[in-house]
Amino acid sequence: KNEVEQSPQNLTAQEGEFITINCSYSVGISALHWLQQHPGGGIVSLFMLSSGKKKHGRLIATINIQEKHSSLHITASHPRDSAVYICAVNSGGGADGLTFGKGTHLIIQP
Amino acid sequence: DTEVTQTPKHLVMGMTNKKSLKCEQHMGHRAMYWYKQKAKKPPELMFVYSYEKLSINESVPSRFSPECPNSSLLNLHLHALQPEDSALYLCASSPRQGPDTQYFGPGTRLTVL
């Protein structure tokens, strides 16, 4: 079983819709990351969370440490939001790298 | 400068070739990472360098050899690769070891013939 599970795997929505992507993890973590990957490979870090909620523009990320669950919300979605959204965690101390979920492929249609 | 650069962008090599991938950052970050990403799969951690010392090696075959000559530069030396090593190789850096925002380079797309 993967340590980081995301849902849904694929999501197609209309422009303007409110989008929610979910992430559950099964290990103890020191931080959870939401990343965006566009076709061609570039990865951009959207949020790093260890508790609570963060907001940046139309993006909101929340985490519930007790339930080992995080959500990424996109308000007023736009076709340029189309990308793969990846949840990743730091699950150890020290100079640990990230353990990634399988990603959610989001398509926003005009 | 908040950019991680990687060269080359694309690399095609035969199984007997020796080549190197290069990653550079000038943000003063002290942790640097190599990840491997196969098509339609999430990235997988290969190596972590912290303060120019190899901190984590995720059981990567010896045909991949990392090197960190200084705090700004990270190399991945490739030798006797297999076709299944074809993938996108991503470099990332973060200000410090441990949980911190990682900044990713654009990747090198490697094809092994």
Provide structural commentary.
The complex is a heterodimer of chains A (about 110) and B (about 110). Chain A is mainly beta and about 110 residues long. Helix content of chain A is about 0%, strand content about 55%. Chain A has strands at about 5, 10-15, 20-25, 30-35, 45-50, 50-55, 60-65, 70-75, 85-90, 100, 105-110. In chain A, the strands form two sheets. In chain A, strands 2, 4, 5, 9, 10 and 11 form a six-stranded mixed β-sheet that branches. A five-stranded antiparallel β-sheet of chain A has the order 1-3-8-7-6, with no helix packed on it. Chain B is mainly beta and about 110 residues long. Chain B has strands at about 5, 10-15, 20-25, 30-35, 45-50, 55, 65-70, 75-80, 85-95, 105, 110. In chain B, strands 2, 4, 5, 6, 9, 10 and 11 form a seven-stranded mixed β-sheet that branches. In chain B, strands 1-3-8-7 form a four-stranded antiparallel β-sheet, with no helix packed on it. In chain B, a hairpin with an 8-residue loop joins strand 9 (about 85-95) and strand 10. Chain B is globular, with a radius of gyration of 13 Å. At the A-B interface, strand 4, strand 5, strand 9 and strand 10 of A face strand 4, strand 5, strand 9 and strand 10 of B.
